[in-house]
Each structure stands twice: as structure tokens, then as C-alpha cells.
Amino acid sequence: MLRCGRFVLPLDRPLVMGVVNVTPDSFSDGGRFLNPEAAASHARRLVEQGADLIDIGGESTRPGAAPVSEQDELERILPVLEKLNDLGAPVSIDTRRPGVMKAALAAGASMINDVRALAEPYAHEAVATTGCAVCLMHMKGDPRTMQHAPHYDDVAREVKGFLKEAVRKAMFAGIGKDRIVVDPGIGFGKTAAHNVELLRHLPDLKALGVPILVGVSRKSLIGAVTGRPVEERLAGSLAMALLALLGGATILRVHDVKETKDVIAVWEAFRQ
Ligand code: 9MG
Fold this sequence. Notes:
It is a single chain. The protein is an alpha/beta fold. It contains nine helices and ten strands. It binds 9-methylguanine.
């Protein structure tokens, strides 16, 4: 099980994390949910479709994205969080900033999804003193420059080594293993070939002893493989989600919850 604030999530079946971006510039849904009411209704719709948790982001992490101020990030996410206190499912906040983590957790968030794996000073403290879950993701560089010719000698070994160290640091800071999730960071400072290699080696991450989260939904990797623009990547995303499940993913971060639930149903029938 994953301890996630006031929630406890079972891990004997795959979980779906529905994405709600409260940003003007996210690659897929940028600008659609800037209004808090629209964002909250979308979150509710995703839960109705079967999302086990919702991930809300106020700063785009797409390749090339420029950072926003902490104030702007807070002004985007806090009004949405306030509207979701009765959601009945955990809300995760996608942020790298300890100040945003603290404010979001105080406002009812149950999980922190940090694409920088708690690298900012005081990020561990912001998470450790609460009962929230945390996703530690691998990223090489930062969103503005990460896709400028990323290089690895052995991407699978390097990402696993990074995540192993991130888990060690988090536990050293007092975050229990039952609150930690790891993520290879598909698309974050990786070429399409690196991403495919990471998916192939996903089973290696099981040795870390914590749940694995994977996000491939509508990403440029799907575009590179299928040649499709972002609005036509559903089939490719679902096929890759199935491969992630085969590799041992426990949480799928997706835009298309209803369709992903069908993939999981097929996977569960096969697995049993
Ligand atoms: C915020 N965000 C965008 N893509 C992501 C991914 O693949 N994993 C996680 N944890 N967060 C992501």
C-alpha cells in the first residue's frame, strides 16, 4: 500500500493518476483549465472515469517551458485545491518548490510529484514532516534545455542509480518507504531511443522496492514512434501504457483516464 496523506492506496492493482494542468503552456492541455472551476470540474470528471488520484500542475514541465514565479504557481493551484477538498481521491501537486509543497499540503494535497526528486533546498523537510506520498522522478537538466542533445553512457543504469540515491536521501530525511514512488521520467532529458531503452529496463527498477510511476501519455515519444501530432496520440499512448504495465509500472500518469482503465482491465484479465 501507498500512504498518501489521509488516504491509503492499494498496490495490488495498477493505479491511474489523472492529469490536470492549470497552465497556459502545457504541451497537451495548456490553457484549457486555467479557470479554477474548469480545472476542478475536469478533476471530478477524471475521478468519475476511474482515476485513483489526480495530479495538478501550475508550472509547465514540457521541453522548452519557461519557469513561472512561486506566487503565480500558488495562485494557479490553491484555488483549485480549495474546490477539491471533498473529491474523495488524493490530489497530488506537481511542483519542485518547497514553498508550494508546504502551502499545497496545508490546503489538503496528499502527494507531491516532484520532477526534480526533492533537489531544491528544504524540499525534503517540506515533505518529511507530513504524511503525504512523494514521487521522485529522474530528469537530466531542466525543462528549458533538457532536450538539447541529452547524452548517457548507459541510460537505464544511470537512471536507476539516480533513483536509488533519491530514495536513500528521502528515507534519510525521514520519509517512510511506504510513502515513496519512483519514476524514470520519460521525456525528461532523453531521446526517443533513451525512452524506449528505459521502458525496456523498467523491471530493473522493481529492485528499489517502491512503486513505479510512468508517464507516457501523449508525449513526443509517442509522436516519434507513430508520427502523429499530439491530438492523435491516444492509441500510441495506450499501447505504451500496456508496455509499462508489463514492465512493472504500478501508477500510470495519463490524460485519458477512461481509455487507460480499459487497458488496465485487459491487462488484469491477462495477468490472472
Ligand atoms: C509533471 N509530469 C509530466 N510528465 C511526468 C511524468 O512522466 N512523470 C511525473 N512524475 N510527472 C510528470
